[in-house]
Specification:
Elements (H helix, E strand, L loop, with lengths): L17 H11 L4 H6 L3 H15 L5 H14 L3 H13 L4 H8 L6 H15 L6 H9 L4 H23 L15
Helix pairs in contact: 1-3, 3-9, 4-5, 4-6, 4-7, 4-9, 5-6, 7-8, 7-9
Organism: Cupriavidus pauculus
Pfam families: CMD (PF02627)
Protein name: Carboxymuconolactone decarboxylase
Length: about 180
C-alpha cells in the first residue's frame, strides 16, 4: 500500500511538528504511521495530538473511548483505526470479544451499548440526532459532560478515519478484519 502523501520519518518532519512527535514517541515507544502522515501539517498534528490528550484525561474511560473508536472505524471502513483502536482497547482492559462486539456497535453492558448506538447515530446521521437519542444516554446514567465527550470521541475518530482512508496510510498495527457490508 502506498500512501497518497509523504509519511516522513520523524526526523524529517517539519520542525514545528517535532515537539508533538517527541511526545508521541514517548507515549507509544515509536511514532505510528498516522501521526507521521499528519506531521506534514504541524497545526493538524497539534490539533490531533491535543485532542487525544484532552479526551484521554476526560470523564469517559479509555476502554469506552476505544470501543467507540472501533465502532466508528468500522462504519467508516478505516482499517488503520480499527487495527490501532482494537489494540488500544485490549490494552485498556477490553476482551477480544468485547472489542469485536463494539466493532459491530454492540455491547452486553447497557451503558456501553447506549454510547455505541449514539456514536453510530452521529456518524450515520452526520450529527443529526433526536431528543430521544440524547435521553437514552441520560437514562443509562451519562451526564451532560459525558454526552459531550462521546460526541468529541466521535469527532476525533472521524478526523483520524478520514486521514487514514483519504491518504491511504499504511497500517502498522495488527490487522483486524472489517465487518462485511
Amino acid at each position: 500500500m502506498t500512501a497518497r502523501i509523504p509519511v516522513p520519518e520523524p526526523a524529517h518532519a517539519p520542525a514545528a511538528s517535532q515537539p508533538a512527535l517527541d511526545q508521541i514517541q514517548a507515549a507509544f515507544g515509536g511514532v505510528p504511521q498516522m501521526f507521521r502522515a499528519v506531521s506534514n501539517s504541524p497545526a493538524a498534528l497539534q490539533s490531533m495530538w491535543g485532542a487525544f490528550g484532552a479526551l484521554g484525561g476526560g470523564a469517559i474511560p479509555a476502554r469506552l473511548g476505544e470501543q467507540i473508536a472501533v465502532a466508528v472505524a468500522d462504519r467508516n471502513r478505516c482499517e488503520y483505526c480499527l487495527a490501532a483502536h482494537t489494540a488500544l482497547g485490549r490494552k485498556a482492559g477490553a476482551s477480544a470479544a468485547e472489542m469485536a462486539s463494539a466493532q459491530a456497535g454492540q455491547s452486553d453492558d447497557p451503558k456501553t451499548a447506549a454510547a455505541l448506538a449514539f456514536a453510530l447515530q452521529l456518524v450515520e446521521g452526520r450529527g443529526q440526532v433526536s431528543d430521544a437519542d440524547v435521553a437514552r444516554l441520560r437514562e443509562v446514567g451519562f451526564n451532560d459532560g459525558e454526552i459531550v465527550e462521546i460526541l468529541a470521541h466521535v469527532a476525533l475518530n472521524l478526523f483520524t478515519n478520514y486521514v487514514n482512508v483519504a491518504f491511504n496510510v499504511p497500517v502498522d498495527f495488527p490487522a483486524v478484519k472489517l465487518t462485511a457490508r
